[in-house]
Prior knowledge:
Helix content: 25-40%
CATH architecture of the largest domain: 3-Layer(aba) Sandwich
Distance between the termini: 38 Å
Low-confidence stretches: none
Amino acid sequence: MTAVTIAASPEQVREQVIAWRRHLHRHPELSFHEHQTAQFVADTLATFGNLAITRPTPTSVMARLIGGAGAGPVLALRADMDALPIVEANTHDFVSQAPGVMHACGHDGHTAMLLGAVQVLVGMRDALRGEVRFLFQHAEELYPGGASQMVAAGALDGVEMVIGAHLWLSMRVGQVGVKAGPLMAALNTFRITIEGTGGHAAIPQQTVDPIVIAAQVVTNLQQVVARNVDPLASAVISVTQINGGTTTNVIPGAVEMSGTVRTFDAALREQIPSLMERVVAGVTAAHGASYRWTYEPGYAAVVNDATASDLVRRAVIDALGPEMLVEARPTMGAEDFSAYQQHVPGAFFFIGARNEEQGIVHPHHHERFDLDERALDHGTRIFVAAARARLGRDADGR
């Protein structure tokens, strides 16, 4: 790629950001396999100049912009880049060209709008103090996630604050949701094997039926939240897979179950596994069965720092006006952005991308997921405004 003319404002990169997003949408790659995506990002960044570009992991990219106005804070801006194993059902002219892989969560947009912010901020380098560090992260969708790997590779060394965003289909385009405190839940995964005694389906008294027992386990696990968790707290236990049996006239010997647990409170997160196992142990013992159990902690909860959230609020108002700023509603969805927040103060926020008139209403991870691309400009503007507010010559450092 040849060097590009550096843009002076987000308006000048708006169409380019859309073009980048569509290119990335056509060429999605799964978690930990973002080789072409990372190379595209690195090559694009190289055309801007004045950036120190490195590869913290084989499929991620980091760029550092040192301000020309002297020493100052180090602010990190993050975008994720991976896609999902979904067959796209959209019909627009930039559908996925990778069989069975689709950008169904907006990460193509995240990458494109951060590229736009980089290009604009490079053009105002002389007005910035300190450093803006751009993190183009791999593998948000698949545990253990790319964020923790980038932290281990030193991507946060010297960083004082980190900001990230998600294009959000639960909010209409023209809204930006910001919230201090808990925003996205911690993620945990469980797997249960109920072991009974198989036999003929017409002679159930000679069996210990794991299917009947599994049904009771599913029902009773819901009592953990309903009767063991403070109603003012938030928790979800969802059994999402049940596998057992081979034919209509045979009771199987075992049933496998798995699912997810979501919480905000750290103490509750530690408590729920023992409550769940007590239910599983009690139900299986009552029916003469046994069980095997594994419980795997995943991403921590996204809990936004108050100062970082205030910076994002001011950036939204400066970039888009106060009418676009709303209080974000917490969600039980999970995000590995929390790995950065374990090390430095950070804020994650939502950029509305829903447009019911255009039929852009399908949820994340749906085969017809899409974005109102006006939201990309909003994201670029907010990232630029946040960097200026934090690192500009007259910034107060808040």
